[in-house]
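user: can you give me the structure for this one chain? tokens are fine.
assistant: on it. calling the predictor now.
[tool input]
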Amino acid sequence: MEVQLAVLADGANVSQEGKLNILGEFNTIYGTEPPLLHPLMYFVAKVNISAGDGPSVVLRLRVVDAEGAPAAPELALHAAGKPPSDGTPAPLLVVIPIVQAVFRQFAEYTFELRGPSGPPLAEVALYVRPVPGA
């Protein structure tokens, strides 16, 4: 598995033609005081899978705080598919809506996309900060 893209965004979808559409990529949110409630965001990734990854893929999304402690329940994504027989990788488009996310303090959070084992395949930082000048 190889991750080509991983971002947080205001909106995302996959078109009927299989195109990944991303709207409003960001890495910082602002608030007046914690806890901060973010109504809707999307974790978006494009992962290339190869024949060696098997007929089904399990990916996990984990959110951790600056100390590495879980900041939200882990999400699992189960995908079935088969890469083309010519050996080229097949794209797996991941669009995960995250509704009513709560960030308990101003800090850096990391969204980790993980495979079945080993280190994260991708990490996306989110900075939760006070409104400038407030």
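assistant: here you go. The chain is about 0% helix and 65% strand. The two ends are 44 Å apart (CA to CA).
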